[in-house]
């Protein structure tokens, strides 16, 4: 591992001077030489194959793809900063069998960010964790151009432990290798329930904020802010639980869709691709409570590539409960493909005790025959069977200032229907879920989105 770490302090400058005539870059430290414990920046590249510790007194710069492999554990101290320049778009991949121990704190988050003076989405590649839990094989390899030794994912142990991610912020991520083949802010590939994931913010990403490919891990306190594509993108059989999560969209910022016909959404869930017929198992089936999703709401300059608050399609099952969904540009809640609609009709899926106010229609069906479910029947299931409410005006939901993109205030105001009414029944009654009274992500008595680890106005 020491052969991949280069110091940019005094020792590093000496090494660079001695190696300037060589074609393979700076001379590495000898294998047994430890970096100095004082300040300095550290360049990291290639593979990390033994337990490694990154400390907050240094800044770590990723040069291209960095793989934590060979069952190694990468420990990152609270307050540590990891950066990348746009020439390499560094990507950190914790490969299956290895672990990350990134336990920041509210006052000292671990921050992955751009090292450019003028920071832009895509300067930093992203973070990917690859575990040994189950997936359904919809994707054969990791997205984003990883090397041949680190492409496969999936396993059989849903209790697998890939480590800890707490109080982590990932800024200016996203790396487009080919159309439809990108690195996201945080990608989780078949990560197991033994993994600890909470208090994560993705800021100004070039592609998806969070994308989960299979796996069974659970998470709380997630924020996707001003990312260009989908904020919560689940597929390949992801079947974990999530509570207290926020999605806020910049109306003018989407990624380049080219001629794909793709759109950007707060949620996009798939089980499998069209070619694979939607029925692979395990099924994509997240259980979610207390989300607040804020779309563009037709603000001035809204990108034509914005789509829906929530797009559930291609055989995905889901429960979305006790949430607030606002400002979807083309529509609010959308079901795509007949098998997805059938799951909703039979009650396997549901949008429960949720407040919905889209700029476009609140409900939409896509590629679903009326014999399976029509628009009136869908609305009745959501609002009668599942106890949700829809509004024609987002102001009726009564959040304080949800469409102020620079500083969104998601607190319910006095008289808001979001102040009460949460229900934790059936699968949402699981012990994982904190039983609160309010709807949406933010407790009216304590706004966690204004804590010091969270960053707005980017």
From TrEMBL:
It comes from the Bacteria. PROSITE patterns: PROKAR_LIPOPROTEIN (PS51257). This is T9SS C-terminal target domain-containing protein. Residues 1-19 form the signal peptide. Keywords: Signal. PANTHER family: LIPL48, SECRETED PROTEIN.
């Amino acid at each position: 591992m020491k052969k991949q770490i280069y110091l940019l302090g005094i020792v590093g400058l000496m090494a660079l001077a001695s190696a300037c005539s060589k074609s393979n870059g700076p001379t590495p430290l000898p294998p047994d030489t430890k970096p100095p414990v004082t300040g300095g920046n550290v360049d990291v590249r290639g593979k990390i194959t033994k337990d490694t510790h990154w400390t907050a007194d240094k800044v770590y710069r990723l040069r291209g793809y960095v793989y934590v492999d060979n069952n190694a554990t990468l420990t990152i101290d609270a307050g540590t900063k990891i950066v990348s320049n746009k020439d390499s778009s560094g990507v950190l991949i914790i490969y299956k069998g290895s672990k990350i121990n990134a336990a920041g704190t509210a006052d000292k988050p671990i921050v992955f960010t751009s090292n450019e003076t003028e920071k832009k989405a895509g300067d930093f590649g992203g973070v990917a964790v690859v575990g040994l839990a189950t997936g359904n094989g919809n994707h054969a390899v990791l997205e984003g151009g990883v090397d041949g030794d680190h492409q496969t994912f999936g396993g059989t142990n849903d209790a697998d432990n890939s480590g800890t991610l707490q109080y982590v912020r990932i800024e200016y991520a996203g790396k487009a290798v080919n159309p439809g083949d990108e690195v996201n802010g945080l990608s989780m590939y078949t990560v197991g329930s033994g993994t600890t994931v909470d208090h994560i913010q993705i800021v100004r990403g070039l592609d998806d904020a969070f994308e989960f490919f299979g796996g069974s891990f659970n998470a709380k306190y997630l924020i996707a802010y001003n990312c260009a594509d989908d904020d919560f993108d689940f597929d390949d059989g992801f079947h974990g639980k999530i509570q207290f999560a926020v999605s806020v969209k910049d109306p003018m910022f989407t990624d380049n869709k080219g001629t794909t016909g793709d759109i950007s959404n707060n949620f996009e869930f798939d089980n499998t691709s069209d070619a694979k017929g939607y029925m692979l198992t395990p099924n994509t089936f997240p259980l979610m409570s207390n989300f607040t999703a804020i779309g563009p709401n037709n603000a001035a300059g809204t990108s034509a590539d914005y789509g829906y608050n929530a797009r559930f399609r291609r055989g995905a099952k889901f429960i979305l409960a006790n949430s607030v969904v606002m400002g979807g540009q083309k529509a609010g809640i959308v079901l795509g493909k007949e098998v997805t609609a059938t799951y909703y009709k039979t009650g396997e899926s549901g949008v429960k005790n949720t407040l919905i106010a889209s700029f476009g229609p609140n409900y939409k069906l896509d590629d679903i025959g009326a014999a399976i479910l029509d628009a009136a029947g869908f609305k009745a299931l959501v609002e009668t069977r599942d106890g949700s409410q829809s509004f024609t005006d987002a102001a009726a939901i009564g959040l304080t200032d949800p469409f102020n993109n620079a500083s969104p205030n998601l607190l319910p105001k006095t008289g808001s229907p979001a102040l009460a009414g949460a229900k934790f029944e059936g699968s949402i009654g699981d012990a994982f879920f904190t039983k609160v009274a309010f709807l949406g992500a933010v407790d009216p008595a304590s706004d966690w989105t204004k804590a010091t680890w969270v960053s707005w106005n980017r």
